[in-house]
Structures are given as C-alpha cells and as structure tokens.
User: Fold these one by one.
Assistant:
Number 1:
Amino acid sequence: MEMTLRWFGSAFDTVTLQQIRQIPGVTGVITTLYNTLPGEVWTREQIHSLKEEVEASGLHISGIESVNIHDAIKTGSKNRDQYIDNYITTLKHLGEEDIHLVCYNFMPVFDWTRTELARKRPDGSTVLAYTQEAVDALCPETMFASIAGETNGSTMPGWEPERMAHIKELFEQYRNVTEEDLFQNLKYFLERIMPVCEQYNINMAIHPDDPAWSVFDLPRIIINKANILRMIQMVDNPHNGVTFCSGSYGTNLENDLPDMIRFLKGRVHFAHVRNLKFHSPTNFEESAHLSSDGSFDMYEIMKALYEIGFDGPIRPDHGRMIWDEEAMPGYGLYDRALGATYLNGLWEAIEKGAIHNGTHRTRN
Ligand code: CS2
Ligand code: MN
C-alpha cells in the first residue's frame, strides 16, 4: 500500500504540499481539479500543470478524488451520452498523464451527509457528526443552509453551491428514479467507460454512499456487501472496483468491515480508513483514527487490507479539528497526519508480524 493524503489544490486547501511531504511515510496525494463541475471535460493541460505542481514538491499524484458524475448520468436522462463522452475524454487525458486511479460516487443529489461539522468533544477537539433525528427535522433545502455556516469558508466536496442553488430541480430530476434505475444507470455508465479504462489501465473506484442508507427518500445503492457484489458482477471487469471507505460502510453497524474487505479481494483499488464513535446506531461522530477512540477495530481493518494483498493508495479520511487549526471540516493537517502515522504503524506491525510468522503476503 501507499500512504497518501487528500489535497484539494493550492487555491482551495489550507494544507500545503510541503507540509504533506513532511508527514513521515506519505509519498503521494489524492487530488482533483476542484474548480471543475460535474460533466466538464478536464483538459490535458490542466491535468499536466497540476501534476507538475505536485511533483515539484517531491510528491506525486496517486489518484484522483473525484471526477464527479453529472446528474444526467445518474438519472439516466436523454442527454447522458454527451456527459459520458466528456467523462471518457477526461479519463483519456488522465491516462495520457499517467494517472491510473479515479474515485467517484453515484450518490443522488448529495455527496456525504453530516448534520454537524463541528461537534465539540470533551477534549475540545471538534468533529463531523450525524444524527438521524436532525436529518428527519430538516428538509433538503435547509440541510445545505444548516451546514453552510460551519465550513470555515470552504466549499465542501460534493456540495458545490452551483448545484445546491438548484436543489429543488435536482430533487425533481430524481423523483422517479428507483434503486433499480440507479443500478441500471451505473451499469450503462460503466459499460461505456470500461474500454477507455482498459486502454489506459485506469482503475475506477466507486465510493460508498455516506451514510449507507437512504437520505430524504433518495435511492442509495452502494451501501452493503450484497449491493457491491451486484455492482461488481454486473460489469465484471477488474477495472470496475471500489474505494473501501471504512467510515462510510461503517455507518451501518451491520456491515462487517474486515469481512467486506476480504470479500472484495482484487477489487479494492483505494482505501479511506477512518474510525467512528457511535452513541447509538443513528448517532455517531468521526473520532480520532485510534481504535480505542472510536467503535471500530482499526487493526482488524488494516490486517484485512494487508491479507488481501492490497497495494493501492490508502488515505486517512476525515480528521478531527485540533490544536486550533482552521481548515475545511475533516480536512485539516494535524489530525490527518496523526492518522496517517498511526495507520503506517499498524501496517508495519502487521507486515513484520507476518514476516516473522512466515505468512508474509504476496501481491493480489
Ligand atoms: C469523501 C467523499 O469527504 C468525504 O467524505 O470521502 O466526499 C468522497 O470524496 C466522494 O464521495 C467520492 O466521490
Ligand atoms: Mn471516504
């Protein structure tokens, strides 16, 4: 595996490439063209200059998160082919720039959903949190407004104000879209992009829906083992894989995370590893990465990744806001650096333990 950090680009991120480079064991960044909207073609020049900037710092681009999918593709509208063509052109340009991993999601309207971006913990740190009661008390329009005041001035990924301004129309577009339709629209999209993925050896890594259940009655499909099995089988190509995000699948306590990782052997192209602390099944917050601070056994999660021969990028996912840092919620420097270091420590111990026991893994 390669330890990485997400970086939104110098115009948008409070964290610098130089700071990322100083985190021991972090060699790559997961980045994006943050000022593009879903559906736009990424030009080769834009990608090339991003790559040059990253490489000048001594790091490299380990993958893209995300190339977002236009709503026309998700809803299966008549004009979807034009947006799929644009997506294919973007993939081609990424491949030409030697980038081989693309994370995306297929969530209707909203990307991840949280009800608090700065819940205060007893130690004074703040974290993102979710309660179903708070969601049930909101309507979609107020959802966006309710978090907009807590973002420390950032645009949150997947919550582009340009799209949110049209939230009513977006809901209208999804009104008759069922889970079955979403599966079919995802299949159509994947079938069309697989040839370019094969040509340029690009791994597509779908990010799970977060939380892993329906929000505001919108259909959600990438939520559990049965549904990912369906997704993988319906377009059975090794380039059709997943981002294993422990904090997203983990929102549903019925998901057995190490078991899901083992079952996905060969199809996990990217991993987001973070911990959650549950107060009840529908009230959780994003804790520090350390197992004892949350509800997940991070050792077992890392061990499962090790045992399937995972050799793609891992990134600590959201971190707490600590040490008076002001940054995009979830994406400060300090706690993600602590997370990366902790996860690297777990990995080293697992790997050395396996060498010692003679069970050292080979690749996928
Ligand atoms: C991320 C997602 O910040 C986050 O929660 O894990 O926004 C993720 O980047 C997208 O869903 C992937 O397309
Ligand atoms: Mn994630």
Number 2:
Amino acid sequence: MSSIKAPRGVRDILPDESWKWEYVFAVTRKAASDFGYREVHLPVFEHTELFSRGVGETTDVVEKEMYTFEDRAGRSLTLRPELSASMVRSYLENRMDRQHQPAKLWSAGPMFRYERPQKGRYRQFWQIDFEAIGSQDPFVDVESVELSLEIFKRLGLSNLEVVVNSVGCPVCRPVHKKALQDFLRPRLNDLCETCQARFDRNPLRILDCKNPSCRALTDDAPGTISCLCEECSEHFEVVKKGLEMIGASFRIDNRLVRGLDYYTKTAYEVLSGDLGAQNAVCGGGRYDNLAESIGGPHTPGVGFATGVERIVLTMEQQGCSFGEAPNIEVFVISADGPSREEAVRALYDMRRAGISADIDYTGRSFKAQFKAAGGSGAVFACILGPEEVASGQVTLKDLRTGEQKSVRRAELTDFLKTRLR
Ligand code: HAM
C-alpha cells in the first residue's frame, strides 16, 4: 500500500519554519493593537451563500476555487476562501454597529482556494486580515494602507511597491463598464478565451489579465479613474492626499481591479519585488456594499489581508531577522540505573524553576546524548552520571564555550538562573 501524502497545494509548517511564523504573528499583533484593532476568531466554514453573494458570483474565487460541501443535513457549506465576508457577517450578526464606529477588527487563520499551486500560491494558505467597518471616511482607507506598511516595516521588509486605484461604485461602474466594452468590442476576437468569456459578465477583470497579448491590446483601454463619479473622485483625492501626507510612497495603477467583486472606491495591493509571479504580499480596499449584498443594512468598510506564507518567503529571501530561534536552555544527559531517576528529578526541578530543559528518551549512549545536546541549541548540558549522583553534584557544560563546572545538586537551579538570565 502506498503511504498517504498531504493533498496537492497544502503544506506542513514544520518546527524549523513555524517559529518564524510566530515572530510574524507577534509583530503583527502588536501593530494591530497599536492601531486600535481587536482580534476576532472566525469560523473556518460558512454558508456557501455568504461567499457567492458577498464575494460575487462571477469571480474566479466563487466560480472555480471554493471548497464547497454538503453537511449531513444537506446544507451547502464552504471552507472560507477569504475573511472579509465572514468579518462583515460577524459584525452584523453581533450588532457591532452599536459599538464605537468603525469597528476595527483583525483575524488570522487558514483560507482555502482551489488554485493552481506554485511558489507562493497554495490551496490552503494563511491570511492575517484587518477590517474597519462602519465608516466611509477616506482617512480610514489611508490608515488601512499605513497599517499594512507599518507591519512590513516592523518585519524589516524592503523592495515593496504600493499600488493604489479607485474602482468606483454602482453609480460610476456602469459608465466605465460601457466605455470599456465599447473599447474592447472591436478587439474581442484577439483577446484570450478567458477574457472573451469575461466580456459580458465581468469586463473589468480583463484589465487584470496577465496574458501579454491581452495586456498589449488593453494598454489604452479606459481605466476606472476616468469614469469616477463626483463622490468617488472626491474620496480618491482625499485618499491620495492622505497617503502623501503620511509619507507613503505609492503608484497609481488604473488597471488594478482586484479579483473580488465587493470592492468600491479604493483598491490597493502591496507588491514584493522578490516574489516572482505571485508577488502580492497584501491586498485590500473599500467594500461599501458588501454588508447589503449579504442581507444587512448599508455599512461601509475597508480593510486588507496579507498572506503569511508570502511574508515569510520574502523575509527569508531578503535575509530579514525573525528574532531568536526558540531553543531549550538545558539538555540533561544521564546514564541508566539510579542516576537516571536523579536526572529526571533534576529535569523537573529545572522546569518548575522556569528553566526550559529536555532529556533523551531513546536510551542513547553518552556520546549520542552529547551530540543531541549540541543539536538541541541548549546553552548547557547537565550531566548526571553515577559519579555525580554519588557526590551530590552535577556537571554543567557550557555548550558555547566548552567550559565545564561542577555544581552542587541542591544549588543547580539557582546557579542556572543567574547564568541564564
Ligand atoms: P486577496 O488579494 O485575495 O484579498 O488576498 C490577500 C492576500 O492573501 C494576497 O495578497 C496574498 O498575499 C495572499 N494570498 C491570496 N491567495 C493566496 C494563495 N492561494 N496562496 C498564498 N497566499 C495567498 C482578500 O482575500 C481580501 N479579503 C482582502 C481584503 C480584506 N479586502 C478588504 N479587506
């Protein structure tokens, strides 16, 4: 029988990597709280309708990428492909409109999309998501961009580019759609099949096609900004001014349309120059009609999500620091027989005194235990053989300097505490 492997597009985050994730979460958590965002834990699956109505029926995410299944009672459920729809659902369901507005919330966890796996693109991936719900103030959009940049700055990321656009609203979008279709109609046969299929249903996405010949054909296509209504235009002006005011460097990209249908007004991405094809470390924007599309009252909102795998990949590529790898402080080395029991006692004494410590459980030779101690990253090896037990002492070896010292067993934890702290 062949052994079972993980499904395509998912990966195990092993200990050599998971501590780096912890660092990313710690830095992000602190930045979130510095900006007044509070954490929410959201369910991993939701009613399918939340995403089909919230994210949009004609998006790739809803049409092709969702992990949808029926539960035993025949309800259609979907593993969340993103968090904004869930966050707005939670805001409405828990009547967060009664609290101070906007409700500034963040959440992290795995998302699921049936995409073609490649470097930086997985079928299960982690997002850290930030949403400010309940305000239409353009300065909240500015804060959203600034928070993403602040997180990347604190993580030490460089070579990033911020691209910003305004995708308009239900007032100006039909005007743009018509202008775009008029422009594309004579070129339709030369566009790729995907773009042709998008022409009637979602022509905006044609601007986002990565196919070089489609890009060339749409080079002079009318961008969203040229058709903005007065309200969207004014909103965009304040966002741009706000970003300049706080010193954020950004590029306006009139082709940036994002892959989710709920966006209105501001849309933005932060791109890494070190990631290759899947270069977005974060994406976000405003979604003033999302709450209504899932059955709630009109509730403006803006936010972004950043992909943890892509952050870690970029940090590794750029040689960023992840802080110190968490290692135990003491590795206990023992022999068989009565000294083994004394070694186990010493192990628990140390742990109870707040010293991180470990021991070998595989009955290995002294030599092999020393090797394991070296590989564990511990600062000290604590040797408890028959001789040490007989004399009421332990031998401590500083694994960094090789220096060895005998310490009275009764003084072991006090000695270690002064040496380790
Ligand atoms: P998104 O652009 O689809 O936006 O995803 C946000 C980020 O998640 C991307 O920039 C990328 O870093 C990461 N990401 C997306 N798909 C994958 C994948 N297959 N593998 C690895 N990483 C991935 C959203 O999801 C919106 N909900 C963001 C938002 C929040 N907009 C407003 N509020």
